[in-house]
Amino acid sequence: MPALPPAAQRFTLTTDAAPGTLARVLAPFAKRDVVPDAMEARRTGDAHVVIVTCLDVDPTDAKLIRGDLLRLVGLRDLNVECGAPRLAA
Prior knowledge:
Blueprint: E1 9-16, H1 21-31, E2 38-44, E3 47-54, H2 59-70, E4 75-82
Antiparallel strand pairs: 1-3, 1-4, 2-3
């Protein structure tokens, strides 16, 4: 995966492959009015691997989204990558 720019977040989830999973993954973003810049999903056996990238997201929103994703039904694993910290001017 390429490096993330400042203020970017990449959420990588492994979930049960079930109807409605992808909609449930995107719901926390919609709830915070955050539009992902990219989303990739693939099924591997009985699991979905979903990668959601947001290039400019408020850190507070990212923390709240992470909390919502951790409560996702069928979640097996969640990894959140943060972009480089912003440097003070």
